């Protein structure tokens, strides 16, 4: 009799396990077919008989099954109070939900599944939920890859431009292809970790810091573009009057997660269109250098000290009116000639008006540089040896470098 009971129990358990395996197979096929998250949850909740939700690492709702209600109290708690970054084990919420962290490469882009049920008591139910969590983790790995690729693609665009300057027309086209508006106004800040600067671990530390900066700005719904330049982190953020308030909070956030490191921050409050991002990086870099030299305990704002810094304070409208008035004849030339002449003027003035140095920098013969300068004088109807004309052209070129 006892033997028959044992066989009956084993048969029942085998039947349950077989059903679970069939259900797992059905869900895995659904996930591999790259079905929308809502549809995947519909399939899972049909098996479990409970509502299910997926949230991101910011606590924001990303998907739910079609019949589930949106619990505003739950979402307010997950987005504001729950420490999702450091969650490693399932937790019970409000005595009616259980949240499970999904496995992924990076906990900052990890997602979570919430079932409207307290932890299962029966082994079969527990096994079924565990398997669903594992299957959703596979899907979350793909989400992580997609998010990382998008972020990395934008960063690489700017890092490439820094390393290999290209014409602004080409750069503008690249930005548009990546969904960025060249006319949007941006500000910038720079971060460097002081204690690891002279160690081989510095680059690894900065990559980790960049991940947390990216997470922090997404948490406050502020778009950010991060890039690495000269072993430091540079960030471009859309114009925000709150930047002086955001950065001290960012510094506290980084200190909380990297208590043994000292991250210094420099930033600029000036705004420029995205196509002029390198000028923003320069300003943020100068502010960061000051913060490092003085070991400042709070983010340092860029303060103009040179002539070109002061010129950046000239409003764009007035600056472009002046530039157009002086250099308009050059703007009417073919693009290739226009860039050639403007490049020569910029190099000529930055070389203390030495034709020989300008020619050497541009890899052209001195006579070629001299001939082109004469042609520029004729086109502009000005004389570089005339003090007034020289001052106008120099100022127009400096403003051109800032605003165009």
UniProtKB/TrEMBL annotation:
Signal peptide: none annotated. Pfam families: HTH_30 (PF13556). Residues 342-398 form the PucR C-terminal helix-turn-helix domain. This is PucR/PutR family (PucR). The lineage of its organism: Bacteria, Bacillati, Bacillota, Bacilli, Lactobacillales.
């Amino acid at each position: 009799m006892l033997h028959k009971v044992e066989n009956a129990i084993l048969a029942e358990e085998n039947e349950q396990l077989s059903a679970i395996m069939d259900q797992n197979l059905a869900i895995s096929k659904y996930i591999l077919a790259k079905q929308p998250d809502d549809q995947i949850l519909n399939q899972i909740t049909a098996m479990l008989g409970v509502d299910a939700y997926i949230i991101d690492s910011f606590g924001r709702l990303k998907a739910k099954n079609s019949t589930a209600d949106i619990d505003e109290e739950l979402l307010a708690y997950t987005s504001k109070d729950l420490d999702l970054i450091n969650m490693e084990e399932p937790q019970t919420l409000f005595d009616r939900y259980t949240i499970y962290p999904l496995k992924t490469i990076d906990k900052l882009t990890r997602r979570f599944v919430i079932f409207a049920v307290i932890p299962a008591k029966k082994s079969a139910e527990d096994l079924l939920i565990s398997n669903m969590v594992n299957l959703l983790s596979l899907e979350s790995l793909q989400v992580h890859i997609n998010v990382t690729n998008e972020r990395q693609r934008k960063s690489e665009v700017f890092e490439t431009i820094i390393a290999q300057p290209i014409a602004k027309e080409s750069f503008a086209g690249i930005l548009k292809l990546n969904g960025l508006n060249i006319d949007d106004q941006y500000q910038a800040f720079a971060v460097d970790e002081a204690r690891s600067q002279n160690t081989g671990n510095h680059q690894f530390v900065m990559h980790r810091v960049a991940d947390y900066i990216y997470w922090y700005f997404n948490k406050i719904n502020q778009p950010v573009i991060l890039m690495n330049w000269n072993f430091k982190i540079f960030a471009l953020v859309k114009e925000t009057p709150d930047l002086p308030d955001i950065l001290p909070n960012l510094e506290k956030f980084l200190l909380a997660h990297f208590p043994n490191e000292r991250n210094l921050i420099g930033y600029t409050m000036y705004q420029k269109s995205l196509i002029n991002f390198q000028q923003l990086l320069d300003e943020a870099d100068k502010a960061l250098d000051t913060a490092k030299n003085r070991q400042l305990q709070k983010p340092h704002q860029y303060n103009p000290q040179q002539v070109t810094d002061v010129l950046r304070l000239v409003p764009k409208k007035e600056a472009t009116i002046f530039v157009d008035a002086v250099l308009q004849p050059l703007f009417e030339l073919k693009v290739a000639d226009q860039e050639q002449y403007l490049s020569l003027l910029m190099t000529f003035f930055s070389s203390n008006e030495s034709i020989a140095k300008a020619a050497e920098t541009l890899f052209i013969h001195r006579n070629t540089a001299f001939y082109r300068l004469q042609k520029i004088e004729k086109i502009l109807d000005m004389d570089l040896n005339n003090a007034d004309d020289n001052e106008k052209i120099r100022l127009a070129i400096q403003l051109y470098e800032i605003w165009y």
